[in-house]
Amino acid sequence: MKWGEIVRTLRRLHGAKQDAFSQLIGVNQATISRWESGGQMPGPAHQALLLNLYSQSLQQDCGHHAPVETAALPLAASLVHCRFIGMILADERRILQANDAFLDMLGYNRATLEDGGLDWQALTPPEFAAEDRRALRQVLETGRLVPFRKAYRHKNGHLVPVLLVGEMETASPLRIVASVIDLSECRPPLPPPAPA
């Protein structure tokens, strides 16, 4: 279960044992253990808390004045093998490199990526285009991509809600390193159908 990996990675990023991390989150140690083992999934409120904690971890690691080459990249590298977090290297339009988690998230294979067939603008539904333009301006002006939510279109057509956060690796040519968290499991459950 993806949430088990999310909780375990966040706890390790904070250098905490389960009991100390449980105090930070506001649950008991047994709950953290169940989350990490996949025996229980965090509820919507704790999911939001964990995602906010992840975003804060990235921002603290990056620092407002840290050089880009020493900022988000070590943290990104430490997360690259996690299945729940996609990692990408992109320019103004194309995804140049991606880990397997990102490709699986959207249903593409490495051959498509290597053939230059992953255009992040084309993968983005039109309703998110304005937010993408704002984020691109922000990264060009500040070197940082603060966490924001959007969606990509999966190869089979459905939308995949994601949280993006990243850093500019180089300005010329533009290279942006970003982590992409699949939020599909984060949506609150649908209410039960009304009685007939």
From TrEMBL:
One of its GO terms (molecular function) is DNA binding. InterPro entries: Cro/C1-type_HTH (IPR001387), HTH_RsaL-like (IPR055172), Lambda_DNA-bd_dom_sf (IPR010982), PAS (IPR000014), PAS-like_dom_sf (IPR035965). Residues 7-38 form the HTH cro/C1-type domain. Gene3D superfamilies: lambda repressor-like DNA-binding domains (1.10.260.40), PAS domain (3.30.450.20). It holds the Pfam family PAS_9. SUPFAM superfamilies: lambda repressor-like DNA-binding domains, PYP-like sensor domain (PAS domain). This is Putative diguanylate cyclase. It comes from mine drainage metagenome. The lineage of its organism: unclassified sequences, metagenomes, ecological metagenomes.
